[in-house]
């Protein structure tokens, strides 16, 4: 993954006694270029660790070992893991989270490329810091600060987390496919999907014992029971190879 370093002056060195324990997903409410300028200005007094563009660009503004200023305000938090002191005061979430901004606004649909790039970035963070890749540890900014609709109405965090955990859609937004025609028979009732993974919507359902024709396959689909091979059909549907013979 290519990451462009554009280090912001807006950060706190170190993390006091804390370490990254969760990842906060943000929306930029603007462009990647505009966010670069805003985070590089000392007047803004804000930053995040990373920014992800619609075309898959990744910019780093703050080192992960340092504290970015992305989620310090707290209002009616719904995040169960938010920390408090012994006397009930909130501890600044910036100390124990990593912030990732994404290009667009609260009504923007995320591109497949942005989903895939963000998932790859998050996967590496989770590995580096032993952060569980689940909904408790990958959260929206609004779960800390409820007055903002951040990361917006269109982002699907469950899809993002599924990509982190198994779906290996390529970073450029394309799926590597091998063209090979053939036929298989379903072993059990099988879902046809819009893409090679359970994160994609179901387009149809086929009963056991039905013959399906396919136009090719990918080995880069979501891994199910150790098997990431998915077939695709002429109509654009996908089905898992483990459900057929």
UniProtKB/TrEMBL annotation:
GO-annotated biological processes: cell wall organization; peptidoglycan catabolic process; peptidoglycan turnover
Domain N-acetylmuramoyl-L-alanine amidase: 8-152
EC number(s) from the headed UniProt entry: 3.5.1.28
InterPro entries, A to Z: Amidase/PGRP_sf (IPR036505), Amidase_domain (IPR002502), NAMLAA_amidase_2 (IPR051206)
Pfam families given in the database record: Amidase_2
Keywords of this entry: Cell wall biogenesis/degradation, Hydrolase
UniProt superkingdom: Bacteria
Reaction(s) catalysed (UniProt annotation): Hydrolyzes the link between N-acetylmuramoyl residues and L-amino acid residues in certain cell-wall glycopeptides
GO molecular function, one term: N-acetylmuramoyl-L-alanine amidase activity
Protein name listed in UniProt: N-acetylmuramoyl-L-alanine amidase
Organism whose genome encodes this protein: Niastella caeni
């Amino acid at each position: 993954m290519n990451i462009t370093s554009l280090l912001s002056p807006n950060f706190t060195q170190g993390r006091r006694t804390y370490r990254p324990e969760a990842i906060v997903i943000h929306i930029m409410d603007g462009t990647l270029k505009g966010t670069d300028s805003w985070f590089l200005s000392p007047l803004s007094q804000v930053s995040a660790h990373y920014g992800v563009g619609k075309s898959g660009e990744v910019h780093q503004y703050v080192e992960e070992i340092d504290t970015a200023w992305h989620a310090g305000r707290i209002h009616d938090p719904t995040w169960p893991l938010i920390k408090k002191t012994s006397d009930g005061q909130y501890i600044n979430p910036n100390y124990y989270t990593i912030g990732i901004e994404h290009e667009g606004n609260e009504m923007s649909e995320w591109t497949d490329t942005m989903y895939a790039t963000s998932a790859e970035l998050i996967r590496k963070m989770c590995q580096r810091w032993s952060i569980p890749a689940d909904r408790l540890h990958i959260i929206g900014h609004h779960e800390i600060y409820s007055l903002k609709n951040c990361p917006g109405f269109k982002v699907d965090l469950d899809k993002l987390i599924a990509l982190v955990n198994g779906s290996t859609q390529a970073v450029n937004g394309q799926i590597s496919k091998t063209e090979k025609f053939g036929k298989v028979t379903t072993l059990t009732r099988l879902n046809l999907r819009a893409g090679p993974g359970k994160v994609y919507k179901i387009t149809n359902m086929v009963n056991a014992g039905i013959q399906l024709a396919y136009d090719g396959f990918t080995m880069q689909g979501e891994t199910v029971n150790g098997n990431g091979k998915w077939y695709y059909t002429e109509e654009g549907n996908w089905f898992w190879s483990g459900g057929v013979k």
